[in-house]
Amino acid sequence: MSAQTVVSLGGVSKEFGKGGVVALQDVDLEIGPGEFVSLIGPSGCGKSTLLRIVGDLIQPSTGNVVVNGKSAHQARVDRDYGIVFQDAVLFDWRTVARNIGLPLELAGWNREKRRGRVQEMLELVELTGFESHHPWQLSGGMQQRVSIARALSFDPPLLLMDEPFGALDEMTRERLNLELLRIWQASGSTVVFVTHSISEAVFLSTRVVVMSPRPGRITGIVDVDLPQPRSFRTREEPRFAELVRDVRRALRRGGGFEAEEDDHEEERLIVAEEGL
Ligand SMILES: Nc1ncnc2c1ncn2[C@@H]1O[C@H](COP(=O)(O)OP(=O)(O)OP(=O)(O)O)[C@@H](O)[C@H]1O
Ligand SMILES: [Mg+2]
Questions:
Q1: Is 49 touching ligand 1 by the criterion CB < 6 Å?
Q2: 3 state DSSP class of 217
Q3: Is there an atom of ligand 1 within 6 Å of 42 CB?
Q4: Residue 189 has what DSSP assignment?
Q5: What percentage of residues in the chain have a pLDDT greater than 90?
Q6: What are 152-184's pLDDT values in tens digits?
Q7: What φ, ψ does residue 20 adopt, rounded to 5°?
Q8: Which residue has the least CA distance to atom 14 on ligand 1?
């Protein structure tokens, strides 16, 4: 492990209960500072489990996890993480503003400073005017935007995001993709991002990590050499299409797609990806 490593996983496996489901098997991965790494793989392959292990929310059965040169537990104590879960996890008794401001409260920010930052975050996720609402008064997509705002509010050095945009409409998703990239570049943070979407993974990432069906293993890594900063034009570049194809092939090699070959396979995949 080099001194420059933000996340280092060595031989990580996870079995839920003795003789139970093996969710992850022998995962090795090193993530450097400022990387944007996406994890992609079929449903149930262990992406959320891997992210939770990095975030010290569950313990691996075997293997080592080092974050910023210390244990994942210490990294959590030091507030090195911002986490966005697959489903928004909000406190129902707190308003939107007080949910977003929670990490700032915990970090000891005074009320005035918190208020300014929360307003900025509300604007970012287009929820200005909803600060006094409670989570149960919001739609699922709005709740997810609150949890994104909360995770970004304190500029965490390591952002763990589990399909954060899955519940959002396509337009909002593309806008937040661009915002996330802007924030990532400005803050210099490291991001580990789980997604089902091949094109989202390629668009956002510096590296795409491809996982196999359960038990989850890393079966391929695609370096994304698209220039930064990315823009809405990035998706139209020929290199973008090539990289999408590379990730798709890596998924297929790992067994992540049904391997049956047919004449319409390419079209089917494009239709599935574009949501047509
Ligand atoms: N707390 C748990 N107890 C028992 N089994 C679990 C637990 N959490 C996850 N699993 C199992 O581990 C496997 C991987 O689950 P995980 O949630 O990591 O998948 P995923 O890749 O995130 O899937 P999805 O894309 O559907 O979110 C699944 O078979 C799941 O049933
Ligand atoms: Mg998941």
A1: yes
A2: coil
A3: no
A4: -
A5: 72
A6: 898 899 999 999 988 788 888 898 899 899 889
A7: -90, -155
A8: 46
